[in-house]
Input
Amino acid sequence: MKLKLLVLGAFSISAISTFLPGLTPSANAVCVLTDVGVQIAIRGKNSVANQNNNVSQEASSDCYGNTATTTGTQVYTGAGSVNQNRNVGQYVSGGSNPTGVPMPAIKIHVNPQIDVPAYPSF
Output
């Protein structure tokens, strides 16, 4: 009899546990700012590639649970010199931090600059 009750209790707990994730609040986090900007220059061997990627990422001190994402790609192929300039500004604010603990925003930069002097000079 005790074994039947034990099995029934284990089955009941496993059945109820499938509904628990829907009853718990979803997870939130600090604000996250992400920038992905790729600059590629395939140019002449005697030329120059100037690649500049200026990113400003700011968040209000009370920012919570918000995100901003920017992407950009610049590609140059040719025998001459090239100037690639990219300027990005991100700002996020708002949200409601239930913990009351101030947390800095997470700032992610993925900005590869690829310079390939491959074209022959003419």
The chain has a mean pLDDT of 83.
